[in-house]
Amino acid sequence: MKHFLDLSLIEKKELRQIVENSKTRKKNRNNKGKVLVDKDNPLEGKMLLMVFEKPSTRTRLSFDLAMRQLGGQTIVINSENLHVGIGGETIEDTARIFSVFSDIIMLRTFEHNTLLKFSKLLTVPIINGLTNDSHPCQILSDVMTFEEIKGSIVGKKIAWVGDGNNVTNSLIEAAAQFDFELKIACPKGYMPSKKVIAWAKKKKADFEILHDAKDAAVNADCIMTDKWISMGDKGNLSKKRKAFKHFQVNEKLMKVAKKDAIFMHDLPAQRGEEVSAGVIDGKQSVVWQQAENRLHCQKGIIEWCLKGK
Question: What is the pLDDT of residues 11-21, one digit of tens each?
Answer without folding.
Answer: 999 999 999 99
